[in-house]
Each structure stands twice: as C-alpha cells, then as structure tokens.
Amino acid sequence: MFFLLTITALAIFVAVIIGGSFALKFKDKLHLILGFSAGSVIGVAFFDLLTEAFKMSEGMHEPELITTLIVAGFLFFLILDRFLISHVGHDDECDNFSHKGTLGATSLSIHSLLDGLIVGLSFQVSTMVGVAISIAIFAHAFSDGINTVNIIYRAGGDSKKAKKWLFVDALAPVIGIFGSLFIIIPEKTLSLMIALFCGFFIYIGASDLLPESHHSHPKAWTTISTILGIILIYVVTKLGGL
Q1: How far apart are CA 52 and CA 56, in angstroms?
Q2: Cα distance between the two ends of the chain
Q3: How many other CB atoms are there within 10 angstroms of residue 64's CB atom?
Q4: How far apart are CA 22 and CA 1, in angstroms?
Q5: Nearest residue to 140 (alpha-carbon basis) of 209, 210, 236, 46
C-alpha cells in the first residue's frame, strides 16, 4: 500500500504544479481562466464535496446537519471576507488587500490536505476504493493549481507569491496522504469537515471568482469557460465513481 500511496502522492503533486504553471503562463487571459476556475470550484463543491459529505454521513448524521454546516461554512467565509479583511486596494504601503488572497489560498490548501487524507484513508478501506477516489482527486488537482494561482492574482499578489502558494497547495495533499498513515480521523468527523469546506468553496466560486471573471470582459466566453469548468468536474467525479 505504501508504494501505491507514493505514486498517488507524486501524481497529484505534479498535476497541481502543471495546473498552476498553466495559470502563470497565460495570466493575460486571466478572465477566461477565472471563469473556468469559478466553474471548477463550484463543481468541486457540488459534485465532489457535497456528494462525499452526504455519503460519509449516511447512518451517522441527519441530512439537516450536513446542510446546516454547508451554510455555516459559507457564512463563516462571508464574515471573514466582509468584516475581518480590509479591502483597501493596491496600496504599496499597505498589504491588507492581499489577506483575502492568502485566506482563499489557505482554504484551498487545507482542502488539498483533506483530499490527501481522504485518499490515504480510502486505501485503508480497500485498494479498489482508494484507486477510485485517487483518480477523482488527481483529475481535479489540475484545477486546484489554477485556482490557487488565480486567487492570489485576484487579490493583487505577484507571481512570486503565487508560486509559493502553488507549492504549498501541491505539497498539502502529499502531507495528507502520508499523514493518514499516522492520523486516523473518524469518518463521522470527516464528513462534517467536508460539509464545511463545501460551504467555503461555494462562497469562493460564486462570490469572488465568478463576479471577477465577468468584470469588464466579454461575458459570452467567460460564461462558456465557467460552464466548461463545471462540466469537467462533473465528468471527473462520474469517471472517478464519486
């Protein structure tokens, strides 16, 4: 099993780096990539995290608790965004604006860490389950890299900061995968954590990335990009059996 975990961790790490590198290279087309990112983040929230939260909570938690935590995650991120983060613009003497990007990138990295934990724990259930979940996580890891870079750029960060967070996001699932060998998270608790992150991602996609992708840019192409992002995650989760 250790060999399978190593191969999976390496594949996911490379996929995140490739996705982020794509966003760095084509940042002049950022509005299209933002549209795609918004769709992929929303797709991950509904087709991946939401589905997984309900599956894992079956027989342990009422559906109302899961939906309540999703809303709580959304509102928690909203409060952090609106009241605890100063939106002061791109002032060279004040970097508070960049806190929003840091918050978003941190959330994405923690989600990636959780992805790694899910992969590692799934292999403890069975090899077949582990492989199925690994395929889905690997496939949307490319979008995770794009999303991390875009969130930093969206908040006014430069390429150096974007690369730093890209590496953090790529390393996070690796840590999660190997950390699962030593840390056992009860499935009952894990499903609640996934529900919270579902709320985070709905907010990031719908309230941040999506509006920005349509700001002063042709709406037809950005709308198509968003739809493609959602379709990609839908297809990936279906192929991955999630």
Answers
A1: 6
A2: 21
A3: 8
A4: 32
A5: 236
H and E: helices and strands count for the chain? 10, 0
**Exposure class string for 143-181: b at 16+ Cβ within 10 A, else e:** bbbbbbbbbbbbbebeeebbbebbbbbbbbbbbbbbebe
Say which DSSP state 231 is in.
H
Q: How far apart are CA 36 and CA 213, in angstroms?
A: 9
Asked if 20 contacts 166 with a C-beta cutoff of 8 angstroms, the reply is yes
Instruction: Find, among 235, 237, 218, 234, the residue nearest to 35 by Cα.
Output: 218
Sign of the alpha-carbon torsion through 83, 86, 89, 95:
negative
pLDDT 10s digits, 113-143 = 988 988 888 788 668 767 767 876 776 687 7
Q: How many angstroms separate the Cα of 27 from the Cα of each of 33, 93, 98, 141, 242?
A: 8, 25, 18, 19, 32
On the CB side of 56, how many CA atoms lie within 13 Å of its CA?
Answer: 23
Report how far residue 234's alpha carbon sits from residue 242's, in angstroms, rounded to the nearest whole number.
Answer: 10
- Give dist(CA 104, CA 168) in Å, integer: 13
- Indicate the helix (H) or strand (E) that contains 169: helix 159-179
**Is residue 120 within 8 Å of 12, Cβ to Cβ?**
no
Residue 80, SS3 per DSSP: helix
Work out the widest C-alpha separation in the chain, in whole angstroms. Answer: 53
The structure's pTM equals 0.64
Q: What is the pLDDT of residues 58-107, one digit of tens each?
A: 888 999 999 999 999 999 888 877 765 444 344 444 445 556 677 778 87
